[in-house]
Amino acid sequence: MRRILVTGGAGFIGSNFVRMVLSEHPDCFVVNVDKLTYAGNLENLQGFLDRPNHVFVKGDICDGPMIEAIIDEHQVEAIINFAAESHVDRSITGPKIFIETNVTGTLTLLEAARDKKLERFIQVSTDEVYGSLGPEGKFTEQTPLSPNSPYSASKAAADHLVKAFGHTWGLQYNITRCSNNYGPYQFPEKLIPLMINNAINDKELPVYGDGLYVRDWLYAYDHCTAIWQVLEKAPSGEIYNIGGCNERANLDVVNLILDRLGKPKSLIKHVTDRPGHDRRYAIDASKIMRDLDWRPSVSFEEGIGKTIDWYLQNEKWLASVVSGDYQKYYDSMYLNR
Ligand code: NAD
Ligand code: TYD
Fold it and tell me: Residue 324: which pLDDT band, with cuts at 50, 70 and 90?
């Protein structure tokens, strides 16, 4: 039996990963540590919380003694670090917590992994550490890191720390750098769920600037299968880009959502741009495809269809995550934009 510590497993991608592992790899034992910030939600784990091979612990990855105690108690062999502050816009209005969680939190986990001599540390990173592309080319694993936002700078710092622990203390590690994820259970602060939620409710869809910014879209489930392949097969020290082979301009994504929901284009509202907005991300994922035999399972059109259906069928979940503080966040970000 594999015994893994998943951090951030009540968030969007982490909960998709925990659900996938518990469903498809029942011989794997998962300890799930999550601080339950605004982005963490136990409802993301409904039906899975009480599985015999799953333990949930509410805790902060900056708490070293707690992490070490969990590793000992559950005989953890590997850490997969999803926990992070993950939203670029929030990093612009309040960068400090991004340094605490993404840098100090990762450092704390690395020290525990080193001291407890774990078999593997997998850092879930982002293509945003590479910076921004012009109209041509893609990020490869050799692209120099050149982060532009406080969020991506904090993730790049964490990547450097992971490599430094490998180099200095022989920590066995991998780093994965994926493109923009979408799918069920994503908090409606990111582009796709925010636009779906607004369109469902006939609210304006706030498109930053000219809307011609380009992202590569990766269905979260496909991201999770890629990470599983890394855990199973990757040699230590390797970095893998993970992408969906689905480059789209934001306006095209928003138009597709409106078409699928049968809503008018007049809901689109161009608003003031994000400061320092990265123009284009594109991923060359040939390494993980070639070396670990991974492929995305859905096209963007299929994935967005499944995602919209999920939000339509999970109105209660959506209503509960947009209650309370969400409205305050939304107003502060969009009201006078
Ligand atoms: P998310 O914001 O939905 O979830 C983050 C989770 O981490 C939440 O459950 C939160 O409660 C938890 N958390 C935050 N601070 C913590 C702390 N100090 N201790 C313990 N738990 C804490 O994020 P996500 O979209 O699921 O992203 C997961 C990972 O993937 C992140 O590392 C992110 O940088 C990376 N990533 C995300 C995307 C994307 O498109 N969402 C793209 C590339 C990389
Ligand atoms: P986002 O989902 O925040 O991911 P990231 O900034 O990490 O790529 O944003 C995706 C793209 O959508 C990005 O170009 C910013 C843009 N965007 C909007 O135009 N309007 C919005 O309300 C949001 C949240 C994002």
Answer: confident
